[in-house]
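User: Last request for today: this protein with nicotinamide-adenine-dinucleotide, please.
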Amino acid sequence: LPDLKDKVAVVTGAGSGIGRAAALELGRQGARLVLVDLKDERREQVKAELAAMKAEAVTLDADLSDPVRVQWAFDEAARAWGRLDIVFANAGINGVLTPIEDMKPEDWDHTMFVNLKGTFLSVKYAIPHMKEKGGSIIITSSINGSRVFSNFGMSAYSTSKAGQVAFAKMAALELARYKIRVNVICPGAITTHIGENTHSTPELRKIKIPVQYPEGSMPLEHGPGKPEQVGELVAFLASGASSHITGTELFIDGAESLL
Ligand code: NAD
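Assistant: Here's the final one, the structure of the complex with nicotinamide-adenine-dinucleotide:
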């Protein structure tokens, strides 16, 4: 039977890719959802997909880098359903991909604000609503934040993703006293819309990137993973089946990071 019945889950970046797939899986397992995203139609579409499977959801418009909006979103989420048990802090961007010498300070900041500060804000403003009963927080980092540093132009992205891993571990330590578990997932390449948020520069395209392994091939399967595969991992980490797992970094990459 679904383990997540009556639980309330906030998913950030819920309108697309990994966030959408996780929201659908959490809904399938009985959770009530709060879908946070910048993009209106995508958020509403996921709400309709959930409704089609008889899962309930509310949608909220918030830019994760804006403290006022993030606090509002978590307060509103808890108000809408009367509780908060699960947070999937997932929204993220590739941002501007360019070598360090060409990186504009404001482009560096933008990636940090969305990916890293957005994660901090999501956890910070969830705590007041979770500290009495406990719960589970899952953060989306990347293999780029932990062991794959092969691409030119990804210094800001990789730094933000590495920061999320360190932050998740500190949060796990601090929040254990409230029985809030915090884990961080590190996907390899997954088929999503993230490329739409990527701004590559002509300088970058001129550089020959030292590729460590044949593009698109992975030991476990040919080509990238599917968002649904990540959604299942998120539901596991949200559920009681992972009750003794916290502060852990989980790779979900078909062994891409071992190449
Ligand atoms: P995606 O672009 O398909 O979805 C991301 C969603 O986040 C979008 O709906 C977007 O509107 C939303 N979003 C972006 N900035 C936001 C902001 N400031 N406030 C609120 N919402 C915002 O991308 P995805 O691939 O599903 O990415 C989800 C997470 O997975 C990201 O953190 C990304 O770094 C990580 N990731 C993705 C891959 C991959 O290959 N796709 C690999 C490793 C890690």
